[in-house]
Amino acid sequence: MSKVLVAFYSRANENYVNGQIKNLKVGNTEIAANEIANLTNADMFKIEQVNPYSDNYNECISQAQDDQRKNARPELKKYPERIDEYDVIYLGYPNYWSTMPMAVFTFLEHFDFGNKIIKPFCTHEGSGMGSSINDIKKLCPNAKVEKGLAIHGGSVERSQKDIENWVKSK
Ligand SMILES: Cc1cc2nc3c(=O)[nH]c(=O)nc-3n(C[C@H](O)[C@H](O)[C@H](O)COP(=O)(O)O)c2cc1C
Question: 6 C-alpha vs ligand 1 centroid, how far in Å?
Fold first, then answer.
């Protein structure tokens, strides 16, 4: 059996959901990541910045936008000890301006994902996968990057069936 990792980035606390600021105890992508890990019996790894973005929504927007404009690579708290033991990596992230948070770029540049299968999933408020699949392909040129799953963030709790269908689809 192939060994599976669910690596994801997710930010709890204030977020804009269905047109309103809400305080999320667990981030949307983390909810989806937990479901995927349950379905696939995977190990989990949360991608976390040494200096996390603010809990305050507007401050987070300006910090994340600044990092994106600078094409920054925020330093991560830690990395999985080994990546070679995994054959399949589910990669989860929120859509930030059509791509991934810059910390996910840091994560992807850290390893050689050659010959690994990457299955991307994102949560979003309307932009879907954006250009994230192409960005992952550029960062991991030797990986096999499969079709992604875009989940509306505000509906993540009602998306179990979509997640299950996607996981079982290949
Ligand atoms: C900094 C920031 C930028 C965002 N940019 C977009 C965007 O461009 N398009 C979109 O559909 N949603 C955008 N969103 C909404 C998030 O993608 C959405 O709320 C997601 O479910 C959050 O996932 P999380 O709770 O796991 O962090 C943005 C949210 C934040 C905080």
Answer: 19
Using a 6 Å cutoff on CB, does residue 11 contact ligand 1? yes
From atom 5 of ligand 1, which residue's Cα is the shortest distance away? Answer: 96
pLDDT of residue 19: 86
pLDDT score of 4? 96
Cα 101 to Cα 119: distance, rounded to the nearest angstrom: 17
pLDDT-flagged residues of the chain (< 70):
1, 170
CA–CA gap between residue 136 and residue 146 (Å, rounded): 10
Predicted pLDDT at 16: 86
**What does pTM read for this prediction?**
0.97
Q: What pLDDT sits at residue 170?
A: 67
For residue 42, the model assigns a pLDDT of 97
Domains defined for the chain, CATH in brackets: 4-168 (3.40.50.360)
Distance (Å) from CA 136 to ligand 1 centroid: 18
Whole-angstrom Cα distance, residue 60 to residue 17? 15
Output the six-digit token pair for 50. 């040494």
Q: State whether the beta carbon of 123 lies less than 6 angstroms from ligand 1.
A: yes
Query: In what helix (H) or strand (E) does residue 5 lie, and over which residues does it extend?
Result: strand 4-8
Q: State the closest ligand 1 atom to the C-alpha of 9, by its place in the atom list counted from 1.
A: 26
Q: Whose CA is nearest to atom 1 of ligand 1?
A: 61
